[in-house]
Design brief:
- The protein is α+β, with helices and mostly antiparallel strands.
- It has a domain of about 200 residues.
- The chain has eight helices and eleven strands.
- The strands form four sheets. It has a five-stranded mixed beta sheet with strand order 9-7-8-10-11, with helices on one face.
- A hairpin with a 4-residue loop joins strand 10 and strand 11.
Length: about 300
């Protein structure tokens, strides 16, 4: 290859072969001895161009990072977040179920001790409601000290008993209702009335339940409407809404996305479907209708 050499004496430009680079010889024009140096290759890059290139590269890297982390973030949102939500929801569901199971064990223990389930409500001589079943089973539920502080000789809303209004055991609250315990408002109610496991007055033995125990509901989850856990108030069978999440306070209801949970006379807990058939809701609330319950069609677990 050749390059153009400029004589430093006469400024004549001569095309010189690569082999002469670094040698001394006469200029072909002026004849003076000159050192043939290879011309330096000038960097034609403009500093501003270099800055622009650097800025462009930085922007490209930034965009690539945004795309990468955006993709990772999207995957986390799509894959991880739903899993975390499901795990948390499952934990809340399990806590609610466990609380109902504890109530079931307490009811069975009371039945073993007294020969029947507790009355839904006790009354004074004048027929005034005095106490709720929730108070009567406190010793069986593990709250003997709380039970001792409750005065059975006074009505539930007396000055002394009202002091316990905000000491509701957690077993009476659905884990889906985060304010229930603090407010002292129960989430679980028995079904009362003629044909139910809890008559309006008096108590009932398990042997009086003619339907399959596994098909008969004793306690149901519902949404609290501001009633104290001490108040003898429950779901009336005659007013039971044959739909899930009704609006009257006499329905099986829950804040759970799955549906409300119920405790059967067999000690099992079921989660009712949001679209549970009306006839099944009514049937499971009675003790002698003779209707078998197809739980696969009625419950999600």
């Amino acid at each position: 290859m050749a390059f153009v050499f400029t004589c430093p004496n006469c400024q004549a430009e001569t095309k010189v072969a690569d082999s002469f680079a670094g040698q001394v010889g006469p200029c072909v024009r002026c004849g003076k001895q000159v050192f043939v140096a290879r011309p330096q290759i000038e960097d034609s890059a403009n500093p501003e161009d270099a800055n622009q290139n650097a800025s462009g590269l930085a922007l490209l890297l930034l965009l690539a990072g945004l795309v990468f982390f955006g993709t990772v973030g999207t995957l986390i949102y799509i894959v991880v977040v739903p899993q975390v939500y499901q795990q948390r929801e499952q934990a809340v569901h399990d806590r609610t179920r466990q609380r109902l199971l504890q109530i079931g064990l307490a009811l069975r223990s009371y039945h073993d001790a007294y020969g029947s389930f507790p009355p839904a409500t006790t009354y004074d001589a004048n027929g005034k409601p005095l106490h709720s079943w929730r108070v009567l089973i406190l010793p069986q539920l593990g709250y003997s000290e709380l039970y001792r502080r409750y005065d059975l000789d006074q009505p539930w809303d007396s000055e002394q008993n009202s002091l316990l209004a905000f000491e509701m055991p957690q077993e009476y609250a659905s884990a889906y209702d985060t304010a229930a315990i603090a407010n002292g408002e129960p989430s679980f109610y028995v079904i009362t009335g003629k044909g139910s496991a809890f008559p309006i007055k008096g108590s009932r033995k398990a042997e009086e339940i003619l339907d399959d125990l596994a098909d008969t509901v004793l306690v149901a989850e519902t949404i609290s409407y501001g009633f104290s856990w001490l108040e003898p108030r429950d779901i009336r069978l005659a007013r039971l809404e044959p739909q899930i999440n009704g609006s009257s306070g006499h329905s099986f209801a829950s804040q759970s996305p799955r549906g409300p949970q119920v405790l059967t006379a067999a000690g099992e807990v079921r989660t009712l479907r949001l679209d549970a058939p009306a006839e099944a809701i009514t049937a499971m609330a009675t003790i002698d209708g003779g209707e078998p319950i197809d739980w696969k069609a009625v419950a999600v677990d």
